[in-house]
Amino acid sequence: MTTTEEAAAQVSDQQTSPSSHWLAVTAVALGTFLLVTAEQLPIGLLTAVGSALSVSEGTAGLMVTVPSLVAAVAAPLVPMLVGGMNRRLLLLGLMGLMMLANVASALAPSFAILVASRVLVGVAIGGFWAVASGLAVRLVAPANVSRATAIIFGGVGAANVFGVPLGTLLGEFSGWRIAFATLSALACVALLALLALLPPLAASQPVRLRLLAEQLGNPGVRVGILATFLIVTGHFSAYTFVSPALQELSGIDERLVGPLLFGFGLAGMVGNFVAGAALARNPHRTVLAITVSLAAAMPLYLVLGRGPVGGAVLLIAWGLAFGGVSVSLQTWMIKTAPQAVEAASALWVAVFNLSIGLGALTGGVIVDSLTLQTVLWLGGACALAAALAVWTARTNKNLR
């Protein structure tokens, strides 16, 4: 990026007051909340949708798989295709796309059209997240970047704790079409909030294929990408089957699984903001502490989680640790690629989404062919490998 480009971007970013910037951060957090809710909402609606559109629950699961895979592709592709488009306009367009996609879902006369609408949701998720995840550095002062990033990613935790359960309840009482329609209405609210609060954000550096490839030559970015792949794959290989683990390994009654998963989500929100505060002091130590905690929590479940109390305590500890993953690894990418935040973030979002699908798929194969306990060992082993990778970056001055 040339000096002229940097100056133009800085002038554009500074046209509004700091208070407006913080309001913009909140609006972006609302966007991430709705996008993650949209991505995961069908999990609680599979039976209803399958019955209404005459498909099996397994086939209905494509409503979750398809947008995740599309988001992984869209994360680097959308910034590349839009070139130098003002990022404010891009975010508005993507939120508008999400609003229309959920209208299409609510009105879908067939499962094929419903899946097609979910493709559009995936485009919105990947593109929005790739841009929004690195916006804190442009919306607030450098000293507040970690806190602002934690707020933006707080929308992810809030979606898991509130968005998906409430959407599922709405679907159960009013019908799955009403759930999608309500999500579209909320997306309209988010669109208006972004329109009113987000300042103009000139593209500081258009994302090109060459720029994306160059990020893999950055040692810090490579470690961040590898750690993301290992942590997210390991986590979802185990967490996908946390319900049977709670019941079969800890002897917890099925009726208590829902409240415990709610507790997991709340712990994750706490972990997100705790990590955000710690990142301001030392990003490397924060990420290392999270990976080590995850490496311990999942295997320890097999030793100390053999009863209801131990299982519940370790589940909350697991949620607390994983809650800090997104904000910590995104901050890692910002710190290690300060001149190419959007490009590095796009790669990170792509790997994150791919790892979700790969983790769930791997966990399913292992549970079917081996044992439930094996996925917990795998999750711990992946986190330990991530910790070792993170340790190698201890001399990186940008992470201290």
Automatic annotation (TrEMBL):
Location in the cell: Cell membrane
SUPFAM superfamilies cross-referenced by the UniProt entry: MFS general substrate transporter (SSF103473)
Spans traversing the lipid bilayer: 21-38, 58-82, 89-113, 119-141, 148-170, 176-198, 219-241, 261-280, 287-304, 310-334, 346-366, 372-393
Membrane association type: Multi-pass membrane protein
Keyword annotations: Cell membrane, Membrane, Transmembrane, Transmembrane helix
One MF annotation (Gene Ontology) recorded for this entry: transmembrane transporter activity
Domain Major facilitator superfamily (MFS) profile span(s) in chain numbering: 24-398
One GO term describing the cellular component: plasma membrane
Alphabetical list of PROSITE patterns matching this protein: MFS
Pfam families: MFS_1
Protein name as annotated: MFS family arabinose efflux permease
